[in-house]
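Consider the record:
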Amino acid sequence: MSLKQELDSLVPGQDFSRRHFVRASVGSGFAAAVLPVVAQTQTKTPSDGLVTGEVMIPVGAFKMPAYRAAPAGRANAPVVLVVSEIFGVHEHIADVARRFAKAGYFAVAPELFVRQGDAGSYGEIAKLVSEVVNKTPDAQVMSDLDAAVAWARSEGADAGRLGITGFCWGGRITWMYAAHNPALKAAVAWYGPVARAYHAGDASALDVAARIKAPVLGLYGGDDGGIPNDTVEKMRAALKAAGNTGSELVIYPGMPHAFHADYRPSYRKDAAEDGWKRCLAWFGRYLA
């Protein structure tokens, strides 16, 4: 059975040809690996009053696609980098960017896997991880995020008030970027692994905890089988030992991985809404 036939069989009456499940542009559609999405819980944030859409960010001679959402007509808005899960910048990530823009932020969600492949076209998670995610080194990602910050500054945003947030793989990248960029003002890591890396030879967040000076809010599920609670507690202890007393790690009892992903069965409304309130309050405190 082909991938298209397999996807068609999951939701009768739906045609999951490439034009449907491979995103036509950054921020549209969903990755094949997460279809079918749970449409009844999917948030739709309107674009009225915002400047939104795909942009191309220069990284040296390379042009990196990204989704941008910002308040229309507002200069000097603080910047929030939005880092995706392993599935790339799809509809949900674009919607998160619009949510930040509605709150007054210049949000940028870079397509960080683009050199390694099209994360949205993979129907098997294991293959996506082995062929794309595990081949994307932290050094490349850090450079791309730095370029996104420089681009936001060139667009009139206030990159001096810089925040970053990310989910799963992006949650780990959030920790790593906090260690990489001393100019970062605040970060919110959603269920990002702290005790492991993806690309061979890269460090874990625990390895670089002593270099993290910015206040980081970590949001974790108590029943996340991929991120044991004891590793989160080790991260809490490592930050404290390094003198980073401004960070806060929250573990939601009984919650699974990806509880904020409102397009997936893992979504848990109460924890997602509480986490989002904490996230906005965190950035409101440190990026004001």
